[in-house]
From TrEMBL:
UniProt entry tagged with the keyword Transferase: yes
Single GO molecular function: methyltransferase activity
Protein name (Swiss-Prot/TrEMBL): Methyltransferase
GO biological process: methylation
Keywords in alphabetical order: Methyltransferase, Transferase
Organism: Paenibacillus konkukensis
Superkingdom of this protein's organism: Bacteria
PANTHER family: RIBOSOMAL RNA SMALL SUBUNIT METHYLTRANSFERASE J (PTHR36112:SF1)
Length: 265
C-alpha cells in the first residue's frame, strides 16, 4: 500500500501521512508492504505504475481516501446517519432504534461497525450519558472510521458530539464478546456482510472488498446474548435465512430490502 498526499500538501497533511503509515504497519491484517511516498506531480495512476502497487491511501486537506485499482474511492462520511439524525430531530422514528429499544444512557455494542452509519445513529440516540463501542476487524475501514469520527464536523445539531463519543476498537467481535462480563451492554448489534448482497448499494459495494465477509456464527450470537441486558439485534437481507439459523425469531421487514431480527432478553 502507498500512502501519499494531495498536490502541494500543507505540513498537517504531511505529518498525518507519516502517522498513518506508522499506524497501519502496526495493525493486524494489513497485507503487503506499506510505503510512505512523495506525490510530487504524479497522478495516482502514475504512482501505482511507478511503485507497482494498486492500493493508495490519499491524505487530502478534507479527508482520507482509499483507492484500489478502478474501484470508487472509499472514505468516511456520515452518509445515511445524517439523514436519520435529521429525521430524529424532526420527531420521526428510526427502525433500528425502535427494534433495539434504545434509550438515553444506554451502553451499546456495535460488533460490525464498517464506516459507522449505524454507530453514529445509535450514539445520537443514546445521548451524552450513553456510550457506543464500535468494533471493526478490517484494518482500513477501522482506520477510516477512527479518523473520520475524530475529525468530521457536522452542522446538524448534536451529531458531531455523537461521533466524538463513539469508542472505536480494532477487534474481532467474537474475541471481544468472550472477554465481556454478563450484561455488560444494554444492546448488542450485528450488521454483517449480507449473504445475499444488495448490489445496487454503492456504499456497500465500495467496502465489500475490504470487509470481513464471514458469516455470523452461532457462538457469536450466544456470547452476545450473554453480554447483552435487553436485546441482540441483527440487520440482514429481508429474504435471508440467517435469521432462522441464528435464532432471531422476531423480525421486522422494512419496505426496502433489509430486515432487522431481534432477540429479547
Amino acid at each position: 500500500m502507498l500512502i501519499t498526499t494531495s498536490y502541494d500538501p500543507q505540513r498537517e497533511q504531511l505529518e498525518l501521512a507519516d502517522r498513518l503509515a506508522a499506524q497501519i504497519k502496526e495493525l493486524k491484517g494489513v497485507q503487503g508492504n506499506v510505503r510512505r511516498v512523495r506525490r510530487a506531480r504524479m497522478s495516482l495512476a502514475q504512482l501505482c505504475l511507478t511503485y507497482d502497487d494498486p492500493d493508495i491511501l490519499l491524505v487530502t486537506r478534507e479527508r482520507i481516501e482509499y483507492y484500489h485499482e478502478q474501484q470508487p474511492a472509499l472514505f468516511f462520511h456520515p452518509s445515511t446517519a445524517a439523514i436519520r439524525v435529521k429525521r430524529l430531530l424532526n420527531g420521526e422514528s428510526d427502525t433500528l432504534l425502535e427494534m433495539a429499544g434504545v434509550r438515553p444512557g444506554d451502553r451499546i455494542l456495535d460488533c460490525t461497525a464498517g464506516l459507522g452509519s449505524d454507530a453514529v445513529t445509535l450514539s445520537f440516540a443514546a445521548g451524552q450519558s450513553g456510550q457506543v463501542t464500535a468494533l471493526e476487524s478490517s484494518p482500513l475501514p477501522f482506520l477510516l472510521l477512527q479518523q473520520g469520527l475524530g475529525e468530521y464536523v457536522s452542522d446538524i445539531p448534536g451529531m458531531t458530539d455523537a461521533m466524538r463519543r463513539i469508542r472505536v476498537l480494532h477487534e474481532e467481535h467474537l474475541d471481544f464478546l468472550r472477554r465481556q462480563d454478563a450484561k455488560s451492554f444494554d444492546v448488542v448489534y450485528f450488521d454483517p456482510m449480507f449473504r445475499k448482497p444488495i448490489h445496487e448499494s454503492n456504499s456497500i459495494r465500495s467496502i465489500r472488498q475490504l470487509a470481513d465477509a464471514r458469516a455470523l456464527t452461532e457462538e457469536a450470537v450466544h456470547e452476545a446474548r450473554r453480554a447483552a441486558r435487553r436485546a441482540v439485534v441483527m440487520k440482514e437481507h429481508r429474504d435471508s435465512g440467517e435469521f432462522a439459523r441464528l435464532g432471531f425469531a422476531e423480525l421486522h421487514r422494512s419496505t426496502s430490502k433489509i430486515a432487522y431480527g431481534v432477540i429479547r432478553l
